Amino acid sequence: MIEITVPHAGGWEFHPPLEIRFNAHEIYAVALIVQKFGGSSVRDIERVREVARRAIEEHDAGNHVAVVVSAMGKTTDNLLSMVAEITDDPPAREVDMLLSTGEQISIAILAIMIQSLGRKAVSFTGPQVGIKTDKSHRKARIVEVSDKRMREAFDDGKIVIVAGFQGVSPDDEITTLGRGGSDTTAVALAAALKADRCDIFTDVEGVYTADPRVVPNAKLLEHITYDEMLELASLGAKVLHSRSVELAKNFKVPLRVLSSFSRHPGTLLVEEYENMEGMIVSGIASNRNEAKVTLVGVPDRPGIAASIFGHLGAANIAVDMIIQNQASDGLNDISFTVSTEDLKRTKDLSEILKAELSARAIKTKEKIAKISVVGVGMKSHSGVAGRIFKAIAAEKINIDMISTSEISISCLIDLEEADRAVKALHNEFGLGTDRIAQIHQKTKEEEPDARK
Question: What is the pTM of this model?
């Protein structure tokens, strides 16, 4: 086989330069594919073997292949359980040091498996491959990715295996990327490598109109826009993490969601599709990982909201829904939602703010859910809000808070009402199909770690 690199072909410039291989009577371009497999996809040796076969298939088709993997099965949860037996407030640096070991096991096992099947492979941790992040432990953001070591490995005919969920800070400290971190790693690598496609393998066949575990006849979408997927992901749809979708959109990474347990082609993320405004609603999302915090009796004067949310932002606490209610005597109540994992830190900070702002009290509410209706068609169709509220009212479900965007409407309700609300809204907009969604039915021990 002879390989040549053509930096310019027919006046077109390719980035990276297009490789053309001559092999017997075949001429074909070399594609670069990034694959990502979560914890349930590598939970045991047999599943690791299947992942290896998927990577080898792409490699044997003449493509360069980079595989991003999470920790095996419930490894991360088990490690966190060990920490919880010691303290409920562990140092973030040491937690990152601990959690990063899970992916190191996965990449080494997968590399050994691929080599045992007769192909060349090399494993890299996040720091080894050049994934640089900011200094935020447990929620680090990727700031730079080097493609040097990966391209050297490709040139040597190797399948590259990279640990998801981790990187290295400017101070050479190991960091982890937080929930959805492996998705983000895969898309960041695809962007750095200018990959032809990034495949996110999960336990469902693609993106559905609702969680198929809640709505069994949810419809599998052939394609969905980046904007719709970003909205769904940020509002609680677990199939992809919002940071990975945002990266894919910004860097125009061709992104596909498909199952590691079947051969269905999955769902392709696109800029737009034909008659996209004809479909009013694309999906229903639910986020069951929220908590509500209310500062009661806050003085009604300029700068109060800036002070509250400025302090929360400085503490790296992401705030979701916000409502300010005017009370009496020149006082306001300010309510907002945060993730349940941030609730303790939020309560601690709110106690400080209560004293500084002379607020009367702090109230918190857990066991809540945010139900969201998403669709680009909502921009050009009226009456959607009325249909949402009518469908929820018909189920006698009370709405606590409401928020909107250009392509979504969200309602905060009690957690125990979440499934009924999702089903009612899914039915209201006629999103179902006669086909029962195909999902990998996991035992409790096999549930994937939502952080990856």
Answer: 0.80
